[in-house]
Specification:
There is one protein chain. This protein has a single domain, classed as NAD(P)-binding Rossmann-like Domain (Rossmann fold). The protein is built from 7 helices and 7 strands, in the order βαβαβαβαβαβααβ. The chain is globular and about 45 Å long. It has a 7-stranded parallel sheet, sandwiched between helices. It starts with 6 loop residues before the first strand and ends with a strand. Helix content is 44%, strand content 16%. The chain has 239 residues and is α/β, with parallel strands linked by helices.
């Protein structure tokens, strides 16, 4: 394909915030490579773009596997030509999340999804940004990445603190190369991830939460800001 004017990679694009970010970028005229674990979920996101669907292509990949991410990264670069923005929106949690019940398998699966996956994606696309001396990386974090909470659970908190450190490191090391990073720290969002809480919130409680589209608007702000500026951290909560 011809290299489009603006291109992005969005992880976790099959649902929730990742889906909302993908659709926002498509509406703004961007071409987007969608990464997710399930082909059918990525196809649903692409279908929702309607007349913009030709700007989107899905790539099934397990972000916890560095070799798989490296291979998928090469396929995406062959498709897009270059990547202007990477949005790490993939993430998960587990119901049995407090320290007294957290299993080793659940701990590692959460760290893999929320932190290692983002790191692998950064390493796949950062070299190209560095070479072009331009690029924005947005990491969808959480309030739990700023202050621990029992509601979030140990593995989730640890992963999100690490994700904050990854964003800060990108800005510290890559600023001179024209690359910037933004950590977005949302409060409660009405997504399917709520079903993984030990006690999922009520329908009434969900009405007061933010929607994925609210976070997509924050991502757009971070990406569309002129290159001379960077939003390093953005905290957004339900009003």
């Amino acid at each position: 394909m011809n290299t489009p004017s603006f291109t992005a990679v969005v992880t976790g694009a099959g649902s929730g915030v990742g889906r909302a970010v993908t659709l926002k970028l498509a509406r703004e005229g961007w071409s987007v490579a969608l990464i997710g674990r399930r082909a059918e979920a990525l196809a649903e996101t692409i279908a929702l773009a309607e007349d913009r669907s030709d700007q989107l292509r899905g790539f099934v990949c397990d972000l916890a596997d560095p070799n798989a991410v490296a291979g998928t990264g090469q396929s995406i670069l062959a498709y897009l030509g270059h990547v202007d923005a990477l949005v790490n929106a993939a993430g998960t949690n587990i119901p049995r999340r407090s320290l007294d019940v957290l299993s080793l398998d659940d701990y590692h699966s959460t760290i893999n999804a929320n932190l290692h996956g983002a790191y692998h994606a950064v390493q796949a696309f950062l070299p190209g940004m560095r070479e072009r001396r331009s690029g924005t990386i947005v990491n969808i974090n959480s309030e739990a990445g700023m202050r621990a909470s029992a509601k979030a659970g140990a593995a989730y908190v640890i992963s999100k603190f690490g994700l904050a450190g990854l964003s800060q490191t990108i800005n510290t090391e890559e600023r001179v190369n024209g690359v910037r990073a933004c950590s977005i720290f949302p409060g409660d969002i009405e997504t399917a991830l709520l079903e993984k809480r030990p006690n999922p919130p009520s329908a009434e409680a969900r009405k007061a939460m933010m929607q994925p589209e609210d976070i997509a608007a924050c991502v757009w702000l971070a990406i569309s800001l002129p290159g001379r500026a960077v939003i390093e951290e953005l905290v957004v909560r339900p009003r």
